[in-house]
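Q: I have 166 residues here and want to know how they pack in 3D. Can you give me a structure?
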Amino acid sequence: MRATLGLILAGVASQAWPLAAGASGCDAFKWPIAAEAAALSASSIPALEPGAALSYGAAARLQLVPLEEAKLPLAPERAPKVSPSYAGAFPLAAPAAPGTYKITLSGPGWIDVVQNGKFVHPTGFGDPSDCPGARKSLKFPLADQPATLQLSGVGDREISAIVTPE
């Protein structure tokens, strides 16, 4: 009986090991982000100043300012963990259709989305540190109304971002 149980457990472990060992880098995200990582790794990403509109499906290098100078629609939901801390707000037009949208960043930072003067809370979160091009990705449910992407807690004056439908 013990030998049989041991063989069963060994068989289960041998099937689970390849799955656990294979999840690293971009594969460690909870959803596919290969297209976003590639867009954020491109050599010619346009730069956007704070307040400039961000387009869906297009990567942009977002220029940030010190948090105390940023004109954010709402105070960030979380205090910055880095000092100095940079921030910026970037309007988004109403999406083509309401639904879930992924916001993916090239580096660490706090992501808030504001719609109708209120925070939109994320429904998914992923942040493995070993995915070239993409460091953080969150999913947000967006209504068919304009929104604002507001970033804070970024340790650099620039971070790349892309907003894509799920």
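Q: Anything worth noting?
A: Helices lie at 2-22, 34-41. The first strand starts at residue 47 and ends at 48.
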